[in-house]
Amino acid sequence: MSDRLTALDSSFLDIESPTAHMHVGWGALFAPPDDRPAPTFEEIRHHIAGRMHRAPRYRQRVEHVPFGIGNPVWVDDAGFSVARHVRRTAERDFGAAVDEAMSTPLDPSRPLWELRVADDLPGGCIGIIGRAHHCMVDGLAAVELMSLLLDPTPDPPAPALEGWHPSPRAGPLALAAGGVLGRLGTGLELWRSNLETLSSPRRMMALPARALRAGRALLRSASPARGACALNRPLSPHRHLAFARRPLEDLRRIKGRFDATVNDVVLAAAASGVRGALDGRSEPAAPLKAMVPVSVRAEGSTKDLGNRISFVFLDLPCDEPDAVRRLESVKAQMDRSKRTGEPQGGDDLLRALEYAPRTVQRAVSRAVSSSWTFNLTVSNIPGPRMALYMLGCELEAAHPVVPLSEGHGVSIGMTTVGDDACFGVYGDPDCMPDADIVARGIEDSIDELAVASR
Predict the structure, then answer these.
(1) What is the band of 352 on the pLDDT scale with cuts at 50, 70, 90?
(2) 54 to 137, 153, 169, 358: CA distances (angstroms)
(3) Model confidence, pTM
(4) Considering only CA atoms, which of 272, 357, 359 is closest in space to residue 317?
(5) What are the residues whose beta carbons fall under 8 Å from the beta carbon of 165, sequence distance 6 or more?
(6) What's the chain's average pLDDT?
(7) Phi/psi at 126 (5° precision)
(8) What percent of the chain has pLDDT over 70?
(9) What pLDDT digit, counting tens, does each position of 386-422 carry?
(10) How far apart are CA 160 and CA 54, in angstroms?
């Protein structure tokens, strides 16, 4: 596990502001157990504390390198306490509890994560609201954090006994020296990589194709988004997460009928939801440019924290009134992106950013995250398909939070829990008060496509 943030990890620190909180997360609901009393807050916190050894990063905080010589580093938090990060909320309205948690930034002087436990919900349900800074995890790794708290059976194994001692804190001179050495190491790595390419005919032959797909990805990301859109206004610090939920089998049936992917169905439903919200505002219908994160993690590496994502950009057909034609438009664009290697080209561009100075990295991060580049984010995050439990309470739903960078009023995420597709429409209620309308539009669109697929 590297102690230095990558350029992509650091970018999420660079674009954070008092009104743009760059945490990813979820609101999860658990059913009360049938055969035992529901766990208390203290039992839940003790359960989480007994598993902290599985995720050492969650006991570390970000330390910035003096003068920005290098990317920030992870250091052990000598004052770490689970009690600071696992907190109880007395709110009985789960949606209100989620909104309250997501409307405040994480404390940068501590490890950048938090879990809130709502243990007094109607019907005996328990809610867990999790969030972690995007510099620490991408969406897939955030789901893995939730999995660390869960078990495949109602009875968890005994917690591990562990004595943890933080490493000594490095001083400013040591941090600066590490930053210089890191920069030298990056330069040597670039030199070695170029030498290996020059000495390998196979790599030399692949260079034109890689350059072409990187160029395509750059052109697609640089093309301007639609301006003067209701989704793209200055943000307030307030957040609201609207929920939508549909049987995953509906999405799979639609996928099979139209030779699409589940991700295509999610994007088409998102276009429909946004279209309904804009109609309610009498906003002229037009395609909106969506940024779609794509995981480039190696198979089996979900437990590795940090960000292993690339991006694809496409025009959401919010101007198309027919649900099937919306899906066909999305499918055609995503097929073209895969065929031309846009995700791999974007990954090459992000990797190249590692070799740029921090000032250049910051400038690129702010440009790419601006509303000039895209209108909204839509993310499909694979989740657990099997039954999972926390201290005997079965996980029923988990609605994802996809963060909002400045000037973006709404984002849409979907994750799978068992046999359900759980959507989270995350918005700034001051800038974009229509998140619930978007969520209902997503459900209606899936219903419409499900009927068309029969």
Answers:
(1) confident
(2) 15, 18, 22, 31
(3) 0.88
(4) 272
(5) none
(6) 85
(7) -120, 135
(8) 83
(9) 899 999 999 999 999 999 999 999 999 999 999 999 9
(10) 10
The CA distance from 354 to 293, in Å, is 19
**Average pLDDT, integer, range 79-91:** 94
Q: For the chain, how long is the longest CA-to-CA vector?
A: 67
Backbone angles phi, psi at 111, to 5 degrees: -55, 140
Q: Which residues have a Cβ under 8 Å from the Cβ of 411 and sit 6 or more positions away?
A: 376, 377, 378, 379, 402, 403, 404, 425, 426, 427
- Under the phi-then-psi rule, with left for phi > 0, alpha for psi from -120 to 50, and beta for the rest, what region is 228? left
Contacts of 418 (CB under 8 A, 6+ apart): 384, 385, 386, 387, 395
Let me know if 202 is exposed, middle or buried by CB neighbors in 10 A (0-12, 13-18, 19+).
exposed
User: pLDDT value at position 207?
Assistant: 46
* H or E segment to which residue 386 belongs: none
Q: Distance between CA 197 and CA 346 in Å, rounded?
A: 20
And the tokens for 244?
A: 């939508």
Tell me how far apart the alpha carbons of residues 392 and 401 are, in angstroms, rounded to a whole number.
25
Residue 423 has pLDDT above 60, yes or no: yes
Give every CB contact of residue 209 below 8 A, 6+ residues apart in sequence. Answer: 341
Place of tokens 């940090």: 306
Nearest CA among 304, 409, 357 for reference residue 10: 357
The domains located in the chain, with CATH, are 216-377+421-452 (3.30.559)
End-to-end CA distance of the chain: give it in Å, rounded.
Answer: 48
Distance (Å, whole) CA 387 – CA 31: 12
In the chain, the amino acid numbered 155 is D
Pairwise CA distance, residues 204 & 196, whole Å = 9
d(CA 168, CA 46): 26
Mean per-residue pLDDT, 62-72: 86
